């Protein structure tokens, strides 16, 4: 938490005191970082204010003031804005590292940030190839990734315990996985698939043996499923996030 006292900024988590920069420069520098973060996130300059306003639940006029160095978001909205853009809230507000942990690693993560993609339901994922160009995702939650993902990628929340493993890689219920429909599904890949008679997607490991394809759960208590023309692979999982709260 940052406390403002007279002409000093006290950083309680670092126990240091730095001179306060004039308000005009703070706003100018913040506006420049915001523009940079938007560009890095693939948000075009045209209509940028409206896009941010919709995602954060604020007015386009408020965002316009942020972009034009007229004001800065309050702390809560600053955190939401940073999360949306996939950058450190401390960097967005002050242009510096938090000073906590590995600074080089934090900067590396920010440089490698690629894009944000929508979090959708298993039903939407089950028909994604048909609806991704027409569905309204203006109210969807967008999650960032440092992986290079293709057009039409989406996040999906893991349901059930079929991918919960006692050893090795495990995906407990609530994990968000990023699905890239542009990657060729190969043997051993983690994939999201849809059975033709069920309008929802399932997350499994793809096994190809002697030309036969199977969907294998990571949890041994669940059966392996043989697939053929009764199934369509929607994409390959390339990233995952465990939601802690």
TrEMBL record:
HTH cro/C1-type domain residues: 53-92
SUPFAM superfamilies for the chain: lambda repressor-like DNA-binding domains, LexA/Signal peptidase
Pfam families: HTH_3 (PF01381), Peptidase_S24 (PF00717)
InterPro entries named among the record's database cross-references: Cro/C1-type_HTH, Lambda_DNA-bd_dom_sf, LexA-like, LexA/Signal_pep-like_sf, LexA_repressor, Peptidase_S24_S26A/B/C
PANTHER family: LEXA REPRESSOR, LEXA REPRESSOR-RELATED
Record protein name field: Repressor
């Amino acid at each position: 938490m940052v406390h403002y006292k007279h002409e000093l900024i006290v950083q309680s988590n670092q126990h240091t005191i730095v001179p306060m920069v004039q308000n005009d420069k703070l706003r100018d520098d913040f506006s420049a970082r915001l523009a940079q973060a938007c560009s890095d996130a693939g948000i075009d300059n045209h209509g940028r204010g409206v896009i941010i306003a919709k995602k954060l639940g604020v007015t386009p006029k408020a965002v316009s003031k942020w972009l034009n160095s007229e004001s800065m978001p309050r702390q809560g909205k600053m955190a939401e804005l940073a999360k949306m853009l996939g950058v450190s809230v401390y960097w967005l507000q002050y242009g510096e590292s938090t000073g906590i942990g590995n600074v080089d690693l934090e900067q590396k993560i920010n440089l490698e940030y690629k894009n944000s993609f929508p979090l959708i339901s298993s039903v939407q994922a089950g028909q994604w190839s048909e609806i991704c160009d027409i569905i309204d995702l203006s109210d969807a939650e967008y999650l960032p990734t440092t992986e290079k993902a293709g057009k039409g990628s989406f996040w999906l929340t893991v349901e059930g315990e079929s991918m919960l493993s006692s050893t090795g890689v495990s995906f407990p219920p609530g994990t968000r996985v990023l699905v890239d429909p542009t990657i060729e599904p190969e043997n051993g890949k983690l994939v999201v698939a849809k059975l033709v008679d069920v309008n929802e997607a399932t997350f499994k490991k793809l096994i190809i043996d002697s030309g036969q394809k199977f969907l294998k759960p990571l949890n041994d208590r669940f059966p392996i499923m043989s697939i053929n023309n009764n199934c369509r692979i929607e994409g390959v999982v390339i990233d995952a996030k465990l939601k802690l709260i």
